């Protein structure tokens, strides 16, 4: 009886370690932490910061691990849901951003931001269905001044 309980505990411990290690690569951001990082570390233009936050929240819910498969056979990856249709390539570097799509899923968003900026320069926010559906109307944009004490105007 005692032994069985011990084994059960050991098995649960092992299982949680496994689950934890499978999760540890990605990252879920808090809204204000993300806003500050985009602003300070990545020099995102303040004018568009609330658009970026809205976009990310509707595309990936601020979770870098998200992959969404599309009926067209392509998929979108990471915080910005960057599509393998043209911007990145599955399994090896490629696409317009010259990135491997899977690399967008880890907790380092340097490459993601770089590619997202490129998409923005070429296409604008309308590239992202989440932005078009939910952020195009400026009334829907988060008030980062109020929520995060970041003055964007
Ligand atoms: C930010 O974007 C605005 C609007 O397009 C532009 O006028 C301004 O020069 C940009 N600021 C920087 C630092 O790029």
TrEMBL record:
<keyword id="KW-0378">Hydrolase</keyword>
<keyword id="KW-1015">Disulfide bond</keyword>
<dbReference type="InterPro" id="IPR023346">
    <property type="entry name" value="Lysozyme-like_dom_sf"/>
</dbReference>
<keyword id="KW-0081">Bacteriolytic enzyme</keyword>
<dbReference type="GO" id="GO:0042742">
    <property type="term" value="P:defense response to bacterium"/>
</dbReference>
<protein>
    <recommendedName>
        <fullName>lysozyme</fullName>
        <ecNumber>3.2.1.17</ecNumber>
    </recommendedName>
</protein>
<dbReference type="InterPro" id="IPR001916">
    <property type="entry name" value="Glyco_hydro_22"/>
</dbReference>
<dbReference type="GO" id="GO:0031640">
    <property type="term" value="P:killing of cells of another organism"/>
</dbReference>
<dbReference type="InterPro" id="IPR019799">
    <property type="entry name" value="Glyco_hydro_22_CS"/>
</dbReference>
<keyword id="KW-0326">Glycosidase</keyword>
<dbReference type="GO" id="GO:0003796">
    <property type="term" value="F:lysozyme activity"/>
</dbReference>
<feature type="signal peptide">
    <location>
        <begin position="1"/>
        <end position="26"/>
    </location>
</feature>
<dbReference type="Pfam" id="PF00062">
    <property type="entry name" value="Lys"/>
</dbReference>
<comment type="similarity">
    <text>Belongs to the glycosyl hydrolase 22 family.</text>
</comment>
<keyword id="KW-0929">Antimicrobial</keyword>
<feature type="domain" description="Glycosyl hydrolases family 22 (GH22)">
    <location>
        <begin position="97"/>
        <end position="115"/>
    </location>
</feature>
<keyword id="KW-0732">Signal</keyword>
